[in-house]
Automatic annotation (TrEMBL):
Top-level taxon of the source organism: Bacteria
Gene3D superfamilies: alpha/beta hydrolase (3.40.50.1820)
Key words of the record: Signal
Protein name: Prolyl oligopeptidase family serine peptidase
Stretches of the chain forming a coiled coil according to its record: none
GO molecular function: acyltransferase activity, transferring groups other than amino-acyl groups
Signal peptide: 1-20
Species, as recorded: Ruficoccus amylovorans
Signal among keywords: yes
C-alpha cells in the first residue's frame, strides 16, 4: 500500500515543471489577455481585474474551469502578465485565469478600517467573472491561490467560502500572520496595524495558521522559498495541514521572498491546478 508520503512525492513528480523555451506570443495570444474595470460597491471606487482565457475559449460554453490568483503587496493585477515568462505560462493553460487587483487590503474586510472591504470586493469579482466568463460553479472546477499577501488572502478566502474551491496554492505565502513577535518565534514582517489593528487577541481570528484544520476537502499546494523570511511560517502551516489530515503537496524554489520565487513557483501552481480543476475526477 502506498503511504501518504509516497503519494505526495509521486504527485509532486507529476507537477514538476518542464521549463520549456519561451515562444513569441501572437496577436491572437495577446487578445486572450483582457483588462476590466468596474465600480466596486464594497470599496466605493473603480477597481480592476485581468482575465486570461484559454486558446479555443468559447463563450457559449457555461462550465469553464477557473483559477483566481491573487498578487502580493506592491504588485497589481497586471504584474504577472507584464512579466514575459509568467505571461507565456499563463497563456498556455486550459482554464480561465482571473487576476484581481488587491491593493494593500490583504483580501479581507479590515477589522479596524470599515472602508477597507477587500473581501467583499473579491466576492464582487467572483460574481462578475462567473457571469462574464461563463465560469463553472462546480467546486471541482474552481481553484484559488496567490503569492505573499495574496497567498494569505487565498487561504482566507477558502476559509470564508468552505466548499467553493477544490484546490488552493500559495507561493511564499504570509500564512502565520498577524501574530505577536517573540524571541522564540520572530515574526520577521511587521503587522500592518492599519489593516489588522493593534490587538493581538483580535489578530488570532485573522491568522490562517490557526484555522488550517478547517481546510478540509481542499487539496493544497505550498511553494516555499528556501531563502525567504516566511520559510518557517510555511513549514509550520504545512505541519498544521498534515496534522489535520488535509491533503498537502510541498514544492521548494531557491529564491527568497522575491519576484524570482514567483517566476519559479508559478509553473508548480499552474500544473497543480491543471491536475485538479481540469481533470475528470469522477
Amino acid at each position: 500500500m502506498l503511504t501518504r508520503l509516497h503519494v505526495a512525492c509521486f504527485f509532486l513528480a507529476l507537477l514538476t515543471p518542464a521549463f520549456e523555451p519561451l515562444y513569441a506570443s501572437s496577436e491572437a495570444d495577446e487578445a486572450r489577455i483582457r483588462h476590466h474595470s468596474f465600480t466596486s460597491r464594497a470599496l466605493d471606487k473603480s477597481m480592476a481585474y485581468t482575465a486570461i482565457v484559454p486558446e479555443g475559449y468559447d463563450e457559449s460554453r457555461g462550465d469553464w474551469p477557473v483559477l483566481f490568483f491573487l498578487h502580493g503587496l506592491g504588485r497589481n493585477e497586471n504584474s504577472l502578465t507584464d512579466d514575459p515568462t509568467c505571461r507565456q505560462l499563463l497563456l498556455r493553460q486550459p482554464y480561465v485565469i482571473i487576476l484581481p487587483r488587491g491593493e494593500g487590503g490583504w483580501y479581507i474586510n479590515s477589522p479596524v478600517n470599515p472602508a477597507a472591504r477587500y473581501a467583499d470586493y473579491l466576492d464582487e469579482v467572483f460574481k462578475r467573472t462567473a457571469k462574464d466568463y461563463r465560469l463553472s460553479t462546480d467546486p471541482a472546477r474552481r481553484g484559488i491561490g496567490g503569492w505573499s499577501a495574496g497567498g494569505y488572502g487565498s487561504v482566507q478566502t477558502v476559509l470564508r467560502h468552505p466548499g467553493a474551491f477544490t484546490a488552493l496554492a500559495t507561493i511564499i505565502g504570509v500564512v502565520d500572520y498577524p501574530r505577536e513577535d517573540t524571541p522564540e518565534n520572530p515574526l520577521k514582517f511587521a503587522v500592518i496595524t492599519g489593516v489588522f489593528g493593534t490587538d493581538p487577541e483580535l489578530w488570532q481570528a485573522y491568522n490562517p495558521l490557526l484555522s488550517a484544520k478547517e481546510l478540509q476537502n481542499v487539496d493544497v499546494l505550498v511553494v516555499i522559498g528556501d531563502r525567504a523570511f516566511d520559510r518557517e511560517m510555511n513549514e509550520r502551516f504545512v505541519a498544521e495541514l498534515e496534522a489535520a489530515d488535509v491533503p498537502v503537496t510541498v514544492a521548494h524554489v531557491p529564491p527568497g521572498h522575491t519576484f524570482a520565487a514567483i517566476e519559479q513557483g508559478l509553473p508548480y501552481v499552474l500544473n497543480f491546478m491543471r491536475a485538479h480543476i481540469t481533470a475528470d475526477r469522477n
